[in-house]
Amino acid sequence: MSAGMAIPDEEERFPTLTPAGRGMLEFLCEHPAAPFYRNQSGNKLLAHEVEQVRRFEYDVAQATVGWPSDGKPDWLDAFIRSAFDTVPYYRQLGSPPKIFEDLPTQSRAALAADITPFVPDTVEIARLINFRTTGTTGHPLLIASHPVVAARYLAFHKRALKRFGVELRHGSGQVGVVLLGHQQRCFTYVSVTPTMGESGLAKINLYPDEWRHPDDRARYLDALSPEVVAGDPISFAELLELPVTMKPRALLSVSMLLLPALRARLEQRFGCPVLDIYSLNEVGPVAVFDAQAGGHVLLQPELYVEILDPDGKPLAPGQRGEITLTGGFNFCLPLLRYRTGDYASLSFYADAPVLVGLSGRSPVRYLASGNWINNIDVTHALKHLPIPHFSVHQRADGVVVLRLAQAHTALGADARAALEALFGAGGVLLDVPATDDKTVQYTSALDGAHA
Protein backbone atom coordinates (compact mmCIF):
# COMPACT_ATOMS: atom_id res chain seq x y z
CA MET A 1 0.00 0.00 0.00
CA SER A 2 1.35 3.40 -0.94
CA ALA A 3 2.43 5.83 1.76
CA GLY A 4 -0.34 8.15 2.81
CA MET A 5 -3.15 5.79 1.78
CA ALA A 6 -5.73 4.97 4.44
CA ILE A 7 -5.70 1.39 5.71
CA PRO A 8 -9.12 -0.19 5.10
CA ASP A 9 -10.93 -1.21 8.27
CA GLU A 10 -12.10 -4.77 8.90
CA GLU A 11 -15.62 -4.16 7.61
CA GLU A 12 -14.27 -2.86 4.30
CA ARG A 13 -11.78 -5.72 3.93
CA PHE A 14 -14.27 -8.42 4.97
CA PRO A 15 -17.86 -7.21 4.35
CA THR A 16 -19.42 -10.64 5.05
CA LEU A 17 -17.17 -11.72 7.92
CA THR A 18 -18.79 -14.05 10.49
CA PRO A 19 -17.56 -14.86 14.02
CA ALA A 20 -16.04 -18.06 12.63
CA GLY A 21 -14.16 -16.07 9.99
CA ARG A 22 -12.90 -13.60 12.58
CA GLY A 23 -11.67 -16.53 14.65
CA MET A 24 -9.71 -17.81 11.67
CA LEU A 25 -8.07 -14.42 11.16
CA GLU A 26 -7.10 -14.30 14.83
CA PHE A 27 -5.64 -17.81 14.64
CA LEU A 28 -3.54 -16.90 11.61
CA CYS A 29 -2.22 -13.69 13.17
CA GLU A 30 -1.85 -14.67 16.82
CA HIS A 31 -0.33 -18.14 16.60
CA PRO A 32 2.90 -18.17 18.66
CA ALA A 33 4.94 -19.02 15.56
CA ALA A 34 3.22 -16.52 13.24
CA PRO A 35 5.44 -14.30 11.07
CA PHE A 36 5.48 -10.51 11.05
CA TYR A 37 2.58 -9.69 8.75
CA ARG A 38 3.51 -6.46 7.00
CA ASN A 39 0.25 -5.63 5.27
CA GLN A 40 -3.52 -5.83 5.45
CA SER A 41 -5.78 -7.12 2.73
CA GLY A 42 -9.09 -8.90 2.39
CA ASN A 43 -11.59 -10.38 -0.05
CA LYS A 44 -13.76 -7.19 -0.08
CA LEU A 45 -16.65 -9.23 -1.49
CA LEU A 46 -20.18 -8.02 -0.88
CA ALA A 47 -22.84 -10.65 -0.13
CA HIS A 48 -24.31 -10.67 -3.65
CA GLU A 49 -20.81 -10.86 -5.13
CA VAL A 50 -20.05 -14.00 -3.11
CA GLU A 51 -23.00 -15.65 -4.85
CA GLN A 52 -21.82 -14.33 -8.22
CA VAL A 53 -18.41 -15.92 -7.68
CA ARG A 54 -20.00 -19.22 -6.66
CA ARG A 55 -22.02 -19.28 -9.90
CA PHE A 56 -18.92 -18.35 -11.89
CA GLU A 57 -16.98 -21.25 -10.35
CA TYR A 58 -19.79 -23.65 -11.27
CA ASP A 59 -19.95 -22.36 -14.84
CA VAL A 60 -16.18 -22.62 -15.31
CA ALA A 61 -16.16 -26.16 -13.94
CA GLN A 62 -18.82 -27.21 -16.48
CA ALA A 63 -17.53 -25.24 -19.48
CA THR A 64 -15.73 -26.52 -22.56
CA VAL A 65 -12.44 -24.79 -23.36
CA GLY A 66 -11.32 -24.30 -26.93
CA TRP A 67 -12.40 -23.62 -30.50
CA PRO A 68 -12.18 -25.40 -33.87
CA SER A 69 -8.60 -25.80 -35.09
CA ASP A 70 -9.58 -23.98 -38.29
CA GLY A 71 -11.91 -21.40 -36.71
CA LYS A 72 -12.57 -18.94 -33.89
CA PRO A 73 -14.50 -19.17 -30.60
CA ASP A 74 -18.20 -18.31 -30.90
CA TRP A 75 -17.96 -15.60 -28.20
CA LEU A 76 -15.16 -13.68 -29.94
CA ASP A 77 -17.17 -11.28 -32.14
CA ALA A 78 -19.34 -10.09 -29.24
CA PHE A 79 -16.26 -9.58 -27.06
CA ILE A 80 -14.60 -7.43 -29.74
CA ARG A 81 -17.72 -5.31 -30.24
CA SER A 82 -18.03 -4.75 -26.50
CA ALA A 83 -14.37 -3.74 -26.23
CA PHE A 84 -14.71 -1.21 -29.05
CA ASP A 85 -17.92 0.18 -27.49
CA THR A 86 -16.67 0.56 -23.90
CA VAL A 87 -12.84 0.74 -23.85
CA PRO A 88 -11.37 4.17 -24.72
CA TYR A 89 -8.17 2.74 -26.21
CA TYR A 90 -9.99 0.51 -28.68
CA ARG A 91 -12.74 3.03 -29.37
CA GLN A 92 -10.24 5.53 -30.71
CA LEU A 93 -9.25 2.98 -33.35
CA GLY A 94 -12.66 3.40 -35.01
CA SER A 95 -14.83 0.44 -35.98
CA PRO A 96 -13.69 -3.15 -35.50
CA PRO A 97 -12.15 -4.58 -38.67
CA LYS A 98 -14.09 -7.31 -40.45
CA ILE A 99 -11.11 -9.64 -40.28
CA PHE A 100 -9.89 -10.47 -36.77
CA GLU A 101 -6.24 -10.63 -37.84
CA ASP A 102 -6.45 -6.99 -38.98
CA LEU A 103 -6.79 -5.90 -35.35
CA PRO A 104 -3.52 -4.34 -34.17
CA THR A 105 -1.62 -6.27 -31.54
CA GLN A 106 -0.92 -4.80 -28.10
CA SER A 107 2.20 -5.08 -25.94
CA ARG A 108 3.04 -4.93 -22.28
CA ALA A 109 4.80 -1.63 -22.96
CA ALA A 110 1.50 -0.07 -24.07
CA LEU A 111 -0.20 -1.12 -20.84
CA ALA A 112 2.78 0.05 -18.79
CA ALA A 113 2.73 3.50 -20.39
CA ASP A 114 -0.84 4.20 -19.21
CA ILE A 115 -3.36 1.61 -18.06
CA THR A 116 -6.35 3.97 -17.82
CA PRO A 117 -7.38 3.94 -21.54
CA PHE A 118 -7.67 0.13 -21.34
CA VAL A 119 -10.26 0.22 -18.50
CA PRO A 120 -13.88 0.07 -19.76
CA ASP A 121 -16.24 2.98 -19.13
CA THR A 122 -18.68 0.53 -17.57
CA VAL A 123 -16.44 -0.39 -14.64
CA GLU A 124 -17.59 0.99 -11.29
CA ILE A 125 -14.63 3.14 -10.25
CA ALA A 126 -15.48 2.98 -6.53
CA ARG A 127 -15.01 -0.82 -6.58
CA LEU A 128 -11.76 -0.81 -8.53
CA ILE A 129 -8.63 -2.22 -6.95
CA ASN A 130 -5.15 -2.19 -8.41
CA PHE A 131 -1.81 -3.81 -7.85
CA ARG A 132 1.63 -3.42 -9.28
CA THR A 133 3.56 -6.20 -10.94
CA THR A 134 7.34 -6.46 -10.96
CA GLY A 135 7.46 -8.10 -14.37
CA THR A 136 10.31 -9.84 -16.13
CA THR A 137 10.35 -7.91 -19.37
CA GLY A 138 11.40 -4.54 -18.00
CA HIS A 139 7.86 -3.11 -18.05
CA PRO A 140 6.31 -3.07 -14.54
CA LEU A 141 2.53 -2.81 -14.71
CA LEU A 142 -0.28 -1.24 -12.76
CA ILE A 143 -3.15 -3.72 -13.19
CA ALA A 144 -6.79 -2.64 -12.95
CA SER A 145 -8.88 -5.22 -11.10
CA HIS A 146 -11.92 -5.74 -8.86
CA PRO A 147 -12.70 -7.90 -5.80
CA VAL A 148 -14.82 -10.20 -7.98
CA VAL A 149 -11.97 -10.59 -10.47
CA ALA A 150 -9.54 -11.50 -7.69
CA ALA A 151 -12.00 -14.07 -6.33
CA ARG A 152 -12.46 -15.63 -9.78
CA TYR A 153 -8.88 -16.95 -9.81
CA LEU A 154 -10.00 -19.81 -7.61
CA ALA A 155 -12.35 -21.13 -10.31
CA PHE A 156 -9.43 -21.80 -12.65
CA HIS A 157 -7.22 -23.23 -9.94
CA LYS A 158 -10.08 -25.60 -9.07
CA ARG A 159 -10.38 -26.59 -12.73
CA ALA A 160 -6.65 -27.28 -12.88
CA LEU A 161 -6.72 -29.28 -9.63
CA LYS A 162 -9.69 -31.34 -10.77
CA ARG A 163 -7.66 -32.39 -13.81
CA PHE A 164 -5.32 -34.15 -11.38
CA GLY A 165 -8.06 -35.64 -9.23
CA VAL A 166 -8.05 -33.02 -6.46
CA GLU A 167 -11.32 -31.37 -5.37
CA LEU A 168 -10.96 -28.85 -2.56
CA ARG A 169 -12.70 -29.67 0.71
CA HIS A 170 -11.38 -27.32 3.40
CA GLY A 171 -13.98 -24.95 4.81
CA SER A 172 -14.84 -23.23 8.08
CA GLY A 173 -12.16 -23.58 10.74
CA GLN A 174 -9.55 -24.86 8.29
CA VAL A 175 -6.78 -23.21 6.28
CA GLY A 176 -7.39 -23.56 2.58
CA VAL A 177 -4.38 -21.90 0.96
CA VAL A 178 -0.96 -20.65 1.94
CA LEU A 179 0.83 -18.46 -0.58
CA LEU A 180 4.62 -18.55 -0.28
CA GLY A 181 7.20 -15.93 -1.11
CA HIS A 182 10.93 -15.81 -0.49
CA GLN A 183 12.09 -12.23 -0.89
CA GLN A 184 13.71 -9.54 1.19
CA ARG A 185 10.50 -7.56 0.76
CA CYS A 186 7.16 -9.21 0.20
CA PHE A 187 3.48 -8.26 0.56
CA THR A 188 2.16 -10.46 3.40
CA TYR A 189 -1.34 -10.68 4.86
CA VAL A 190 -4.13 -12.96 6.08
CA SER A 191 -7.62 -13.37 4.70
CA VAL A 192 -10.57 -15.75 4.43
CA THR A 193 -12.33 -17.20 1.38
CA PRO A 194 -16.14 -16.71 1.61
CA THR A 195 -16.95 -19.22 -1.15
CA MET A 196 -15.11 -21.91 0.84
CA GLY A 197 -16.83 -21.36 4.19
CA GLU A 198 -14.33 -18.65 5.21
CA SER A 199 -11.42 -21.07 5.11
CA GLY A 200 -8.16 -19.35 5.96
CA LEU A 201 -5.70 -17.85 3.48
CA ALA A 202 -2.23 -16.60 4.39
CA LYS A 203 0.44 -14.96 2.24
CA ILE A 204 3.76 -15.48 4.02
CA ASN A 205 7.39 -14.71 3.31
CA LEU A 206 9.86 -17.52 4.04
CA TYR A 207 12.74 -15.05 4.25
CA PRO A 208 14.16 -15.62 7.78
CA ASP A 209 14.10 -11.95 8.77
CA GLU A 210 10.30 -12.00 8.63
CA TRP A 211 10.05 -14.38 11.61
CA ARG A 212 10.84 -14.19 15.31
CA HIS A 213 12.95 -17.32 14.84
CA PRO A 214 13.77 -19.13 11.57
CA ASP A 215 12.46 -22.38 13.06
CA ASP A 216 9.01 -20.78 13.37
CA ARG A 217 8.55 -21.15 9.62
CA ALA A 218 8.11 -24.93 9.84
CA ARG A 219 6.13 -24.72 13.08
CA TYR A 220 3.69 -22.25 11.58
CA LEU A 221 3.18 -24.14 8.33
CA ASP A 222 2.53 -27.36 10.23
CA ALA A 223 0.06 -25.61 12.53
CA LEU A 224 -1.85 -24.22 9.53
CA SER A 225 -1.80 -27.56 7.66
CA PRO A 226 -3.10 -25.93 4.45
CA GLU A 227 -4.96 -27.91 1.83
CA VAL A 228 -3.00 -26.17 -0.96
CA VAL A 229 0.36 -24.42 -0.98
CA ALA A 230 1.08 -21.99 -3.82
CA GLY A 231 4.38 -20.35 -4.64
CA ASP A 232 7.12 -20.08 -7.22
CA PRO A 233 10.18 -22.27 -7.76
CA ILE A 234 12.35 -20.06 -5.55
CA SER A 235 10.00 -20.22 -2.56
CA PHE A 236 9.48 -23.96 -3.11
CA ALA A 237 13.25 -24.50 -3.12
CA GLU A 238 13.34 -22.82 0.29
CA LEU A 239 10.38 -24.89 1.47
CA LEU A 240 12.32 -28.07 0.71
CA GLU A 241 14.94 -26.96 3.25
CA LEU A 242 12.39 -26.73 6.09
CA PRO A 243 11.55 -29.71 8.36
CA VAL A 244 7.80 -29.43 7.76
CA THR A 245 5.48 -32.39 8.29
CA MET A 246 2.36 -30.87 6.71
CA LYS A 247 0.60 -32.89 4.03
CA PRO A 248 -0.97 -30.56 1.46
CA ARG A 249 -3.17 -32.13 -1.17
CA ALA A 250 -1.48 -30.14 -3.95
CA LEU A 251 1.22 -27.58 -4.64
CA LEU A 252 0.64 -24.84 -7.22
CA SER A 253 3.65 -23.27 -8.89
CA VAL A 254 2.87 -19.95 -10.54
CA SER A 255 4.68 -16.92 -12.00
CA MET A 256 7.86 -18.72 -13.10
CA LEU A 257 8.93 -21.73 -15.10
CA LEU A 258 9.00 -24.89 -12.97
CA LEU A 259 11.78 -27.23 -14.02
CA PRO A 260 11.08 -30.99 -14.01
CA ALA A 261 13.81 -31.84 -11.48
CA LEU A 262 12.36 -29.49 -8.87
CA ARG A 263 8.87 -30.77 -9.57
CA ALA A 264 10.06 -34.34 -8.96
CA ARG A 265 11.71 -33.38 -5.67
CA LEU A 266 8.55 -31.65 -4.48
CA GLU A 267 6.29 -34.53 -5.46
CA GLN A 268 8.56 -37.00 -3.69
CA ARG A 269 8.79 -34.88 -0.55
CA PHE A 270 5.10 -34.01 -0.19
CA GLY A 271 3.45 -36.97 -1.91
CA CYS A 272 0.97 -34.85 -3.85
CA PRO A 273 0.51 -33.41 -7.33
CA VAL A 274 2.63 -30.38 -8.17
CA LEU A 275 0.85 -28.22 -10.73
CA ASP A 276 2.84 -25.92 -12.98
CA ILE A 277 0.39 -23.14 -13.84
CA TYR A 278 1.18 -20.62 -16.55
CA SER A 279 -0.33 -17.43 -15.18
CA LEU A 280 -0.08 -13.76 -16.09
CA ASN A 281 -1.14 -10.86 -13.91
CA GLU A 282 -2.88 -9.36 -16.93
CA VAL A 283 -5.18 -12.36 -17.53
CA GLY A 284 -4.80 -14.71 -14.56
CA PRO A 285 -4.29 -18.49 -14.83
CA VAL A 286 -3.89 -19.38 -18.51
CA ALA A 287 -2.92 -23.06 -18.57
CA VAL A 288 -1.70 -26.00 -16.48
CA PHE A 289 1.01 -28.46 -17.48
CA ASP A 290 -0.20 -31.97 -18.22
CA ALA A 291 2.45 -34.41 -19.42
CA GLN A 292 -0.16 -36.65 -21.05
CA ALA A 293 -1.41 -33.72 -23.12
CA GLY A 294 2.14 -32.80 -24.10
CA GLY A 295 2.15 -29.30 -22.66
CA HIS A 296 0.15 -26.65 -20.83
CA VAL A 297 -3.61 -27.20 -21.22
CA LEU A 298 -5.71 -24.04 -21.46
CA LEU A 299 -8.03 -23.31 -18.51
CA GLN A 300 -10.23 -20.35 -19.47
CA PRO A 301 -13.39 -20.86 -21.54
CA GLU A 302 -13.26 -17.28 -22.87
CA LEU A 303 -9.59 -16.83 -23.69
CA TYR A 304 -8.49 -17.13 -27.32
CA VAL A 305 -4.84 -17.90 -28.04
CA GLU A 306 -2.92 -17.10 -31.19
CA ILE A 307 0.70 -17.89 -31.94
CA LEU A 308 2.35 -15.07 -33.91
CA ASP A 309 5.61 -14.69 -35.78
CA PRO A 310 7.88 -11.64 -35.20
CA ASP A 311 5.89 -9.65 -37.78
CA GLY A 312 2.60 -10.35 -36.02
CA LYS A 313 1.33 -12.93 -38.52
CA PRO A 314 -0.54 -15.98 -37.18
CA LEU A 315 1.28 -19.29 -37.29
CA ALA A 316 -0.30 -22.67 -37.94
CA PRO A 317 -0.70 -25.25 -35.16
CA GLY A 318 2.64 -26.82 -34.38
CA GLN A 319 4.68 -23.74 -35.33
CA ARG A 320 6.47 -21.91 -32.55
CA GLY A 321 5.90 -18.22 -31.92
CA GLU A 322 4.75 -15.59 -29.44
CA ILE A 323 1.71 -16.36 -27.31
CA THR A 324 -0.95 -13.72 -28.00
CA LEU A 325 -4.19 -13.50 -26.02
CA THR A 326 -7.70 -12.15 -26.54
CA GLY A 327 -10.44 -12.20 -23.91
CA GLY A 328 -10.04 -13.18 -20.27
CA PHE A 329 -12.15 -12.96 -17.13
CA ASN A 330 -10.86 -9.58 -15.89
CA PHE A 331 -13.71 -7.31 -16.94
CA CYS A 332 -11.58 -4.34 -15.84
CA LEU A 333 -8.97 -5.10 -18.49
CA PRO A 334 -10.37 -6.61 -21.72
CA LEU A 335 -7.49 -7.58 -23.98
CA LEU A 336 -7.41 -7.78 -27.77
CA ARG A 337 -4.44 -9.58 -29.35
CA TYR A 338 -2.15 -9.00 -26.37
CA ARG A 339 1.41 -10.16 -27.06
CA THR A 340 2.71 -11.78 -23.87
CA GLY A 341 6.42 -12.01 -24.68
CA ASP A 342 6.25 -15.77 -23.95
CA TYR A 343 6.66 -18.45 -26.60
CA ALA A 344 5.16 -21.83 -27.50
CA SER A 345 3.41 -23.70 -30.27
CA LEU A 346 -0.28 -24.60 -30.17
CA SER A 347 -1.79 -28.06 -30.51
CA PHE A 348 -5.28 -29.42 -29.97
CA TYR A 349 -5.69 -32.14 -27.35
CA ALA A 350 -8.83 -34.17 -26.71
CA ASP A 351 -10.47 -31.69 -24.35
CA ALA A 352 -8.65 -28.36 -24.80
CA PRO A 353 -5.94 -26.55 -26.76
CA VAL A 354 -2.39 -27.03 -25.47
CA LEU A 355 0.66 -24.75 -25.37
CA VAL A 356 3.60 -26.95 -26.31
CA GLY A 357 7.19 -26.13 -25.36
CA LEU A 358 6.22 -23.09 -23.30
CA SER A 359 9.14 -20.78 -22.70
CA GLY A 360 8.14 -18.18 -20.18
CA ARG A 361 9.73 -16.41 -17.27
CA SER A 362 12.56 -18.37 -15.72
CA PRO A 363 13.40 -18.02 -11.99
CA VAL A 364 16.90 -16.79 -11.18
CA ARG A 365 18.64 -16.30 -7.85
CA TYR A 366 21.54 -13.92 -7.33
CA LEU A 367 24.40 -14.28 -4.88
CA ALA A 368 24.77 -11.20 -2.69
CA SER A 369 27.20 -11.10 0.23
CA GLY A 370 27.22 -14.89 0.38
CA ASN A 371 23.42 -15.27 0.40
CA TRP A 372 20.96 -16.09 -2.36
CA ILE A 373 18.38 -13.40 -3.11
CA ASN A 374 15.34 -13.50 -5.37
CA ASN A 375 15.40 -11.74 -8.74
CA ILE A 376 12.33 -9.85 -7.51
CA ASP A 377 14.59 -8.20 -4.92
CA VAL A 378 16.58 -6.81 -7.86
CA THR A 379 13.40 -5.39 -9.35
CA HIS A 380 12.46 -3.84 -6.00
CA ALA A 381 15.87 -2.18 -5.79
CA LEU A 382 15.33 -0.51 -9.17
CA LYS A 383 11.61 0.18 -9.08
CA HIS A 384 12.00 3.77 -7.92
CA LEU A 385 13.82 4.60 -11.17
CA PRO A 386 11.89 5.30 -14.43
CA ILE A 387 13.67 2.59 -16.39
CA PRO A 388 11.34 1.05 -19.00
CA HIS A 389 13.67 -1.77 -19.97
CA PHE A 390 16.67 -3.44 -18.38
CA SER A 391 18.37 -6.79 -17.88
CA VAL A 392 20.63 -8.10 -15.12
CA HIS A 393 23.30 -10.79 -15.50
CA GLN A 394 25.59 -12.20 -12.83
CA ARG A 395 28.89 -13.45 -14.18
CA ALA A 396 30.68 -16.55 -12.94
CA ASP A 397 32.99 -14.33 -10.86
CA GLY A 398 29.97 -12.84 -9.05
CA VAL A 399 30.08 -9.46 -10.75
CA VAL A 400 26.64 -8.18 -11.75
CA VAL A 401 26.15 -6.58 -15.16
CA LEU A 402 23.23 -4.17 -15.50
CA ARG A 403 22.23 -3.51 -19.10
CA LEU A 404 20.27 -0.35 -19.89
CA ALA A 405 19.06 0.80 -23.29
CA GLN A 406 21.13 3.64 -24.77
CA ALA A 407 18.28 6.11 -24.28
CA HIS A 408 18.28 5.55 -20.52
CA THR A 409 21.96 5.42 -19.62
CA ALA A 410 21.59 8.78 -17.84
CA LEU A 411 19.95 6.76 -15.08
CA GLY A 412 22.89 4.41 -14.94
CA ALA A 413 24.66 5.91 -11.92
CA ASP A 414 21.51 5.81 -9.79
CA ALA A 415 20.67 2.29 -10.96
CA ARG A 416 24.16 1.02 -10.22
CA ALA A 417 24.07 2.60 -6.76
CA ALA A 418 20.72 0.91 -6.07
CA LEU A 419 22.11 -2.50 -7.02
CA GLU A 420 25.34 -1.96 -5.12
CA ALA A 421 23.20 -1.67 -1.99
CA LEU A 422 22.45 -5.36 -2.62
CA PHE A 423 25.71 -6.61 -4.11
CA GLY A 424 28.31 -4.34 -2.53
CA ALA A 425 30.37 -1.41 -3.74
CA GLY A 426 32.17 -2.17 -6.98
CA GLY A 427 30.10 -5.29 -7.58
CA VAL A 428 27.98 -3.85 -10.41
CA LEU A 429 28.98 -2.91 -13.96
CA LEU A 430 26.92 -1.00 -16.53
CA ASP A 431 26.52 -2.07 -20.14
CA VAL A 432 24.37 -1.22 -23.17
CA PRO A 433 22.62 -4.12 -24.94
CA ALA A 434 23.04 -4.60 -28.66
CA THR A 435 19.28 -4.21 -29.15
CA ASP A 436 16.40 -2.64 -27.26
CA ASP A 437 14.13 -5.56 -28.13
CA LYS A 438 12.76 -7.91 -25.47
CA THR A 439 15.52 -9.92 -23.85
CA VAL A 440 15.66 -12.43 -21.03
CA GLN A 441 15.69 -10.03 -18.13
CA TYR A 442 17.34 -12.11 -15.42
CA THR A 443 20.32 -14.38 -16.15
CA SER A 444 23.26 -15.80 -14.25
CA ALA A 445 26.36 -17.89 -14.92
CA LEU A 446 26.60 -19.06 -11.30
CA ASP A 447 25.94 -22.68 -10.35
CA GLY A 448 22.74 -22.92 -8.31
CA ALA A 449 21.26 -19.71 -9.66
CA HIS A 450 18.38 -21.54 -11.32
CA ALA A 451 16.26 -22.93 -8.49
TrEMBL record:
Pfam families named in the record: AMP-binding
Top-level taxon of origin: Bacteria
Coiled-coil regions listed in the entry: none
All copies of domain AMP-dependent synthetase/ligase, residue ranges: 205-327
Gene3D superfamilies in the cross-refs: N-terminal domain of ligase-like
Entry-linked PANTHER family: CAPSULAR POLYSACCHARIDE BIOSYNTHESIS PROTEIN
Identification of the protein by name: AMP-binding protein
Lineage: Bacteria, Pseudomonadati, Pseudomonadota, Betaproteobacteria, Burkholderiales
